[in-house]
Specification:
The structure is a homodimer. The first copy, chain A, is α+β, with helices and mostly antiparallel strands. Chain A has 4 domains: 334 residues, no CATH class; 69 residues, no CATH class; 43 residues; 169 residues, no CATH class. The first copy, chain A, is built from 25 helices and 22 strands. In chain A, strands 1, 2, 3, 4, 5, 6, 7, 8, 9, 10 and 11 form an 11-stranded antiparallel beta sheet that branches. Chain A has a 7-stranded antiparallel beta sheet with strand order 14-13-19-20-21-18-17. In chain A, helix 6 crosses helix 21 and helix 9 runs antiparallel to helix 10. The longest helix of chain A has 42 residues. Chain A is globular and about 75 Å long. At the A-B interface, strand 16, strand 17 and helix 22 of A face strand 16, strand 17 and helix 23 of B. Strand 16 of chain A pairs antiparallel with strand 16 of chain B.
C-alpha cells in the first residue's frame, strides 16, 4: 500500500530516479510537464518497444540497433573482447577493430553475454510471506535464500533463460526478473583508443568531454534461434525490437530518456551506513587503490606481456579512484553527508512525533546502528581476507576451485547460490577468461601487498592460519614480516601451476581429494583458508538475516515520509530515467555548456598521453573545416556535436545505455557522469547532477568520415 | 601623416588596444557604439580627471583614492614593502597589515616610488630629425641616445621630476613623458595572503578566480609639498585628482575603462622576431625557470631566513613560468604563430603588389631577418653571461659597483643612461633593497647553476675569461667541471663581503682603484668580466642602431596596411583601454561566467596550500549566509561579487590599474588575465582575451566585514 502511495502522489522527487518500467505510467504527469506528448505507458512493458531493445551485457548496458542482432554499447564496455583478441603486436584496445563482413567478426571470448529481459514479476509474497516475525538472523537469511532459489529454478526450466530474484527498497519488495541469455557474442567494431578513450583518465568524470565511447557487438544464437555456445554455425539473433539511430542527435532543451541496467546506488540506507562509507570505506579505498595502481604499473613496466595483462585492471582501479575521490569530496566538503544527516534527523523527528509511526518504524534506525557497531572489530580483517583471496590472482582461482569442490558435494538446492549448477558455466568461463589477465609478476606483487597489511592486523583480529603458514606474529619487526612474506609469496607463486590454462580448467569440478592430489601450493592455501572463510560467511549471513528484518522497515518509513513517487535504489535491473539536455554552473564562475564539438577534439589532440586522436580523424576534421559537407553538422553549433550533458539520473552499469528521444530513437549513448555527480549514488543533487552522453551524430560521423564503415552504416537504420 | 591616418580611419582594430590618452578623442565613435555618452576627450589629458589620479609604482599601476594621497593597488604589487617589513616571526606577506592611524603606517622601503605623469610631448623630430640616411649602426644609436639624454636633462631641471623619452611604433614616434617622482611611500593596508593571494599559483592566470588582490599605500612629500626623501616630518601628498570608489562595482554588460602603465607587448615586431621567441626564448625559459624554482625551493627548505629571502623570487619565477607555458601553448597549438605568419605574408604581398610600397617598405622585413641571423651564434653565450652577472646575487651588486666606477669617470652626458647621475639614487637604493633578498645559500646555488650551463657552451662561443678563472675547458668531463665550479663558487661566495649592507653601500660611487683595494673576490670577478661585457654591449648598440633604421619602416608598413586606428605596443607609459564586462567560451564546452562570488571562496577554502582563507573571512561569509545584511550584495547574484572578467586589453605592468565605469568611478582593480590571454602580448585574440578584475564591492566588503577598517573606509570616498 505504501508502494502504491509512493507511485501515486505527485512529488518533487519526480525528477530523481532510476525508475522501474512499471512506475512509468504514473509519471505521465511530470513527463507531460516536460513536454512529452507520447504514451508514458509504452515504457512499462519490458518486452515492447523501446525497452525490448535494451539489453544487459552483465555490468554494462546496450541496445539492439538492427534486426540482425547488432548491438551498440560503450567502447569501455567491450574492453574484455578487445583484450581477449589482443596480442602485444596487435593491441586492439589501442588500435581498434572493424569487421567489414560478418565472417571477420571476432569471438567475444569466454563469459561474453547478452541478457534480454523478458519478464518481471512481483514475488514479494512468495519470498517473504508466512514467516513468523521472530524468525531472524541466519535462519531468516537461509529461508529467504531457499525461497529465492526455488523461484529462480522454476523460471529457468526452459533452457536459455536466466532468472534473478532481486530485492527493491531494501527488501521491501522482491521482483523475479527473467532474461534470455545469449552466449555467442562477437566483436564487430571498436574505434581506436584515441577516439573511444580520448581524454583517458585525464578527462574521466570530467567536462568538457570529447570521447567517442562507442563500439558494436553482434549476438549469435543456434540455427534453431535459441541461445547456444559459441560455434561457427550459429546465426545472428533476430531481436523483436531494435532502435533506430537518429541522425539528428540531441540538442539543448530536448527531453531524453535513458534505459539501462544501473548497478548500485545507496540512497535508501540509513545515515550510519553512509557514515561508515565516508569514514571507513572511502578513505581505505583512497589509500589502497593508488598503492595497487603503482604496484601494477611497476610490474607492467618490467614486461610488455605483463603490461597488457594488467592494463584493464589499472584502468578499473583508476576509474574507481577518481570516482572515490569525487565521492569523498562531495560527501565531506560538498556537504552531502551533512544533507544525509539532516534528512535522517527529519525522518527521526517525523517518526517520533506520532505513536503509531514510533511503534511501526521506531526500532529500525537504532537497530541498524547496533548491528553495524557489532561488526566493527573484525571489519578490516574480513576485508583483507576477501581481498587477499579475491578475484584476479591465481589464489582467487584456487579459492573458486576449492569452494566448488566443497559445494558440489551438496544437493544443488542447498549449495551457495554462486555455486549452484546453473552458475557452473560462468564459473568455468571466469577461470578461462582469467588467462587474459593472470600474471605471476602481478600476483607476487599483489599477494605480498595484501599480506603486508594482514601482518599489521591488531592482536585481537588476526588471521591465525596465515600467521602460522606465512610465519607472521603480531608486533613482529616489519623487516622480518616482509622477509617472511616475500619468501612465502615467491615459493607459492613460482611453484603453482594454476597459471596454466589447461591445468586450471582440468581441476574444474574435481572433488577435494583430487584437488589435494594436485599438490599445488595455492590450492593447499585455499583449503587451509576455507574454515575461516566459512566462518566469516556464516557471520555475514546472520548479519544479513537480522538486517533483513530492519532495513525494509526503514525503507517503508522513508517512503511514507517522502509521501510521493520514489524510485528504488539501483540493483542491476532494467530501469528508465528521463531528463533534459542542459548545461550547469558546476562551480562558482564556471558553466558547463551542454555540448562539445569536433573543434574541441582538434584543440585537445596533442598527440601525447590521453589525447592521441588518430590522424584519419584529424584529417576528417580538417576536411570538414575546409568545407566538406556532413549531414551531422549541427546548424546552431556549425560543427558536429561530440558529447552532451543531461540531468538524467544514472550510475555505473548504465554505461552503454541508449539515450532515447521522445520518439524512442537512439540519439546518444550514456557513458559517464560529471565529477559533481559521483556522490549521487548516496544522495541525489537535483541541481548539479549531470550525465554525459555521446551524441549519435558523432557516432555516425566517425563511422562515415573516419572509418568509412559503409557496411555497418548500411545495417543501421538511420532516421534524419 | 601615417599616424594621423591610423588615428582617423575607423577599423575593426578599434577593440584592441592599450591606447595613448591622446588617441582617445578619435575613439569617440567606437565608444558611442558601446553606449558611452560621456566625452572621450576627457581621457586625453593626463593631468585632468580621471587620468590625473592614475599613477605608476614602477612596474605596477595604481591610483589615488583620497585627497590625502591614499593609493590603491594590487596586493601582489606591494610585496616589496611587505617583505621589507617582515621578519621570520612577523611575516606580513602571510599575515597582512593594517595601519589604524597614520603614525602606524610602515616605510615602503628603499626604492618605493610613486610616479605621477604630468606631461607628454611629441619629440619625434628632436630625436630623429636631420640625420643623413646613411648614418646607421653604432653611430646612429649613439646619436639617438645623446639626443634623448638632452631632452631628458632639459625636463629634469626642476627637482622632483623624472623624464623618459619613449619610443612608440618601433621607433616611428618618440614621446617625452615627464612624471613627478614621489619617494616617501608608506604601507597602509594589505590583507592576509589567504585573501590577497587566495588561490596562489594554483589559480594564477586561471578562472574562476577568487583573489582579493588589493592593498593600500600612501604618498608622502616634504612639508613644502615637493617630493622628498623618506622623513618623519613629511606630510601626505595632496593629489589634484583622486578616484571615488564605487559601492556598485561592475556588472555583466557594463562598459569599463582601465587606465595604467602596461609594460611590454610585441605585436608590431616582424614574424621572424616572434618566431625566435617561440623557437628559442620560450623553450629556454621553460627549461630554466623550473630548474631555478627547484633550486631556490631546495635552499629555502634548508633555512627559514633563506626561505623568506627567496620567496618573492620564487613567486616571480612561478608567475613567469605559468605565463610562458601559456604563451608557448597558444603560440604553437593555439595557432598564434601561424596567424602571425599569415598576417605577415599578407603584409608582404601587399608591399610587393605596388612599386611605390615596395620601394618604401620592401627592405625592412628581409633586413630584420638578416640582422637576427647574424646574432644567432653568440646568442646563448650572451644570455648566459647576462644571467650569470644579472641582478639578485652579490655578483650582480659587484657588477653594478664596477660599472658605476668606470662610468662615473666620464662626463655625465657621455655615461650610459643607466649610470647617469640622475639614476644614482635608485642604483644605491637597489643595492640597499637587495638586503631583503640577498642570500649566500641562494647565490651559491644560482652561480653554480649558471656556470654549469656556461661550461657546456660550444668551443666557438666560449666565455674564455671564465674558462680561465674557474678552470673550465670545452669538452671537459662533466664531473671535473662540476668540481671546479663548486670549489670556485664556494671560495668566492664565502669570502665576499658584499652580503654586508654597509660594506656594499660603502663602495657605492668609489673609483676602480678603491674597489680593487677592497680585495673582494666577486668585485675582482666583475672587473675581470667587464671587457667582454663591454664588447657585448657595443655589439648590441650596433645592432640596435641598424634595427632602428629598419623597424620604424616595418611599423609604418603595418600601419599603412592596417589603414585604421592602431594602438602602439605597450612600453610602460600611461595607456587607456576599454571593453565590456563579459564571460567567454574558454574551451569547447566550457564557459567562464563573468563574475565569481563569496560562495566560491567558501567552496575553495580547504585551509591548505593556496586556499587558506582567514577564519575571520569565513566567519563573515557564514554571517552573510545566515542573513547579515551587506550593501555589497549583488541583487542578481544574491552574493558579494569577488572577481569579474572583461575584454579590456592589458598586460603585465597594468597590475593595480583602476577599472573605471563610464563616470570615472573606481569599480574594480585589474590584476590578471586568463590563461587564454597570455599570448596576446604577441597577437591579440579579440574573441577569447579576458582580463581579470577584483570588484570594488569585494574590496569594500573585506574592509567592512572582515577587517572592520573603519578609518580606511572613512577616508575612501564611496559612491553608491
Amino acid at each position: 500500500m505504501l508502494l502504491a502511495a509512493a507511485l501515486a502522489t505527485p512529488s518533487v522527487s519526480a525528477d530523481e530516479g532510476m525508475w522501474l518500467p512499471r512506475q512509468m505510467p504514473d509519471l505521465a504527469g511530470p513527463l507531460a510537464a516536460l513536454g512529452f506528448t507520447g504514451d508514458a505507458g509504452a515504457f512499462a512493458d519490458v518486452t515492447a518497444f523501446p525497452l525490448g531493445a535494451v539489453v544487459s551485457l552483465g555490468g554494462c548496458s546496450a541496445s539492439f540497433v538492427s534486426p540482425d542482432g547488432l548491438i551498440v554499447t560503450n567502447h569501455h564496455c567491450i574492453q574484455g573482447p578487445l583484450q581477449f583478441n589482443s596480442r602485444p603486436d596487435r593491441n586492439l584496445m589501442v588500435g581498434g577493430f572493424l569487421a567489414r563482413e560478418r565472417a571477420a567478426e571476432l569471438p567475444g571470448g569466454p563469459g561474453s553475454r547478452v541478457f534480454v529481459t523478458v519478464a518481471v514479476e512481483d514475488v514479494t509474497a512468495a519470498v517473504k510471506g508466512n514467516i513468523p516475525p521472530d524468525v531472524t538472523g541466519r535462519t531468516y537469511f537461509d529461508l529467504l535464500e531457499r525461497r529465492q532459489k526455488e523461484l529462480t529454478a522454476a523460471r529457468e526450466r526452459e533452457p536459455g533463460y536466466r532468472c534473478t530474484v532481486s530485492s527493491f527498497f531494501e527488501g521491501l519488495q522482491y521482483l523475479a526478473i527473467t532474461q534470455l541469455e545469449i552466449r555467442d557474442v562477437r566483436l564487430v567494431y571498436a574505434p581506436a583508443a584515441g577516439i573511444g578513450n580520448f581524454g583517458g583518465e585525464t578527462d574521466n568524470w570530467r567536462w568538457p568531454r570529447h570521447t567517442g565511447d562507442f563500439g558494436f557487438l553482434r549476438a549469435y544464437v543456434g540455427p534453431d534461434g535459441r541461445p547456444a555456445a559459441p560455434a561457427p554455425g550459429n546465426v545472428p539473433y533476430r531481436p523483436k525490437h531494435w532502435l533506430k539511430v537518429s541522425a539528428a542527435g540531441a540538442s539543448p532543451g530536448d527531453l531524453v530518456f535513458v534505459a539501462g541496467y544501473p548497478g548500485r546506488t545507496a540512497r535508501f540506507p540509513s545515515f550510519d551506513t553512509i557514515r561508515e562509507t565516508v569514514e571507513f570505506s572511502l578513505p581505505r579505498l583512497l589509500q589502497r587503490s593508488p598503492e595497487q595502481i603503482a604496484l601494477l604499473e611497476r610490474v607492467g613496466a618490467e614486461d610488455p606481456e605483463t603490461a597488457l595483462r594488467v592494463s584493464t585492471r589499472i584502468r578499473g582501479l583508476n576509474n574507481t579512484l577518481t570516482k572515490t575521490r569525487g565521492v569523498q569530496e562531495a560527501m565531506v566538503r560538498g556537504g552531502v553527508l551533512a544533507q544525509k544527516e539532516a534528512a535522517e534527523r527529519e525522518l527521526l523527528a517525523w517518526i517520533e512525533a506520532n505513536p503509531v509511526r514510533r511503534a511501526e518504524y521506531g526500532d529500525a534506525i537504532p537497530g541498524i546502528r547496533t548491528l553495524q557497531a557489532e561488526r566493527a572489530r573484525l571489519r578490516e580483517r574480513n576485508l583483507l581476507l576477501g581481498e587477499f583471496t579475491g578475484a584476479g590472482t591465481a589464489l582467487g582461482a584456487a579459492e573458486s576451485l576449492h569452494r566448488l569442490a566443497v559445494e558440489a558435494a551438496k544437493p544443488d538446492a542447498e549449495r551457495d547460490p554462486q555455486f549452484q549448477e546453473r552458475n557452473w558455466p560462468r564459473l568455468r568461463e571466469g577461470l578461462e577468461r582469467l588467462q587474459r589477465s593472470l600474471d605471476r609478476r602481478a600476483d607476487r606483487a599483489l599477494l605480498a601487498y595484501h599480506l603486508e597489511s594482514i601482518a599489521k592486523l591488531p592482536a585481537d583480529a588476526r588471521l591465525t592460519v596465515l600467521d602460522r603458514l606465512v610465519g607472521l606474529t603480531p608486533g613482529q619487526e616489519p623487516a622480518a614480516a616482509t622477509a617472511a612474506i616475500s619468501s612465502w609469496v615467491e615459493r607459492h607463486v613460482t611453484a603453482s601451476r594454476l597459471y596454466e590454462r589447461d591445468f586450471r580448467l582440468g581441476l574444474f569440478g574435481q572433488d577435494p581429494a583430487a584437488l589435494a592430489a594436485a599438490a599445488d601450493p595455492l590450492l593447499q592455501l585455499a583449503a587451509a583458508l576455507f574454515p575461516v572463510q566459512e566462518q566469516v560467511r556464516t557471520e555475514a549471513k546472520d548479519y544479513s538475516g537480522r538486517l533483513a528484518r530492519l532495513s525494509p522497515v526503514h525503507a517503508k518509513a522513508v517512503l511514507a515520509h517522502a509521501g510521493g513517487r520514489v524510485a528504488p535504489d539501483a540493483n542491476g535491473t532494467l530501469r528508465i530515467t528521463y531528463g533534459t539536455v542542459k548545461g550547469v554552473e558546476s562551480r562558482d564562475g564556471l558553466f558547463y555548456l551542454p555540448q562539445t564539438t569536433l573543434r574541441g577534439i582538434a584543440a585537445k589532440a596533442t598527440g601525447t598521453g590521453d589525447f592521441q586522436a588518430p590522424e584519419a580523424q584529424l584529417a576528417a576534421i580538417r576536411a570538414l573545416r575546409a568545407g566538406t559537407a556532413s549531414p551531422y553538422v549541427d546548424p546552431r553549433l556549425k560543427d558536429v556535436p561530440v558529447n552532451f550533458l543531461s540531468n538524467v539520473d544514472t550510475t555505473g552499469g548504465n554505461s552503454g545505455s541508449p539515450t532515447l528521444n521522445a520518439r524512442g530513437e537512439l540519439v546518444g549513448l550514456l557513458f559517464d557522469g560529471t565529477y559533481d555527480t559521483v556522490a549521487s549514488d548516496y544522495f541525489h543533487d537535483r541541481e548539479r547532477t549531470r550525465s554525459i552522453h555521446c551524441d549519435s551524430r558523432y557516432l555516425l560521423w566517425v563511422l562515415t568520415a573516419v572509418e568509412r564503415a559503409d557496411e555497418l552504416l548500411g545495417e543501421l537504420t538511420q532516421v534524419p
